[in-house]
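Input structure tokens:
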């Protein structure tokens, strides 16, 4: 690990510092180990060490790159501010763009099928969106206004533009990229009332957007893989299928219109099925056969369907490391 930051936590009791760090690590299942005089937490490829000997509790943060380092600084600021103490850092890049934020230009928008628009963005940081995470947050400034981008403040926290300058921030999936040529592509499922749908209908080549990430999981690592999802998951399913190693067995099931589902490149052992309607996704999950070991089941769709899928997966005996069920959007009415 090459990058490093340090901070003190003035006025915070050692037990409170320990409890705050343990509680913050829990939702990520981040491994915690007791070390002489403190605690070490492994997270996002980096490590946070809390030292409780001597004066005020102190933090040492190690990360594989600057992006993860400053993401950790922001997250730890939030954790300890909630515990009543603002960390005092040895270094703050005040005024810099928020960690992980790349500014890119729109190259093209084209309708690739009746339900999907493909957007190509170009920028010098394109290559880093091809590893460590499949997804990113698209930052769209309000129409007709010069963009104001999130930046690091004096405390090392990310400050987002607010009010009339607030950004629209939907999450998308990298569908394809060429790091050497400096572009990424993503597919927007066109739906009524969508801010990104509306943006993609009117945006001109050359417009500047923010792209924050990557994050949100990678290709499942198992000998047998099942992928199930709705239209919003199709780009992720397509990308995962293209990245799975040759010998993997399993199947993909997508609830999407027939004309929106091309014959996706995939390993010979992966079958591809179209599912008729989103409501058939959970029954498809209930029916699919999965082996007892060396398996991964991946499900992404509307939030309530994902909740139902999680219950099915638990009832079928899959452990946390063998499954993912993610809500990709929230329907206001019926799914
Ligand atoms: C990890 C992850 C990866 C994702 N990848 C993709 C991707 O590659 N391509 C993609 O198209 N989407 C993807 N999504 C889903 C996308 O982020 C949401 O659909 C998001 O709401 C789209 O923003 P918007 O500006 O179009 O709509 P918003 O302005 O956020 O929402 C406006 C209205 O549209 C409704 N709405 C939102 N999504 C849908 C939908 N799919 N169908 C019908 N109504 C909807 C909302 O309920 C709301 O009423 C992903 C989500 C996650 C969490």
């Amino acid at each position: 690990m090459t990058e490093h930051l340090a901070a003190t936590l003035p006025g915070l009791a050692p037990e409170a510092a320990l409890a705050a760090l343990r509680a913050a690590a829990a939702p990520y299942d981040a491994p915690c180990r007791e070390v002489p005089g403190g605690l070490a937490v492994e997270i996002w490829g980096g490590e946070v060490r809390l030292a409780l000997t001597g004066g005020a509790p102190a933090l040492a943060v190690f990360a594989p790159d600057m992006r993860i380092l400053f993401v950790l600084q922001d997250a730890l600021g939030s954790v300890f501010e909630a515990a009543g103490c603002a960390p005092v850092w040895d270094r703050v890049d005040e005024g810099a763009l928020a960690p992980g934020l790349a500014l890119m230009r729109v190259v093209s928008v084209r309708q690739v099928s009746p339900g999907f628009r493909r957007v190509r963005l170009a920028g010098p940081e394109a290559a880093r969106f091809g590893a460590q995470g499949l997804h990113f947050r698209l930052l769209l400034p309000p129409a007709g206004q010069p963009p104001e981008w999130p930046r690091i403040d004096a405390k090392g926290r990310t400050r987002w533009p607010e009010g009339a300058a607030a950004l629209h921030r939907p999450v998308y999936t990298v569908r394809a990229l060429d790091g050497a040529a400096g572009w990424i592509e993503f597919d927007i499922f066109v739906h009524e009332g969508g801010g990104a749908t509306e943006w993609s209908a009117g945006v001109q080549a050359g417009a500047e957007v923010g792209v924050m990430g990557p994050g949100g999981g990678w290709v499942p690592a198992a000998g047998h893989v099942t992928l199930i999802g709705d239209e919003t998951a199709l780009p992720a399913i397509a990308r995962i299928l293209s990245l799975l190693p040759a010998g993997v067995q399993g199947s993909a099931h997508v609830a999407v219109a027939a004309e929106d589902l091309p014959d996706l490149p995939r390993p010979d052992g992966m079958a591809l099925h179209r599912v008729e309607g989103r409501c058939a996704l959970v029954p498809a999950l209930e029916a699919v056969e999965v082996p007892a070991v060396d398996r991964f089941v991946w499900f992404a769709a509307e939030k309530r369907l994902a909740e139902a899928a999680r219950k099915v997966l638990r009832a079928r005996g899959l452990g946390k490391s063998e499954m993912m069920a993610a809500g990709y959007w929230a329907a206001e009415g019926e799914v």
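The two ends are 45 Å apart (CA to CA). The CA atoms of residues 109 and 119 lie 4 Å apart.
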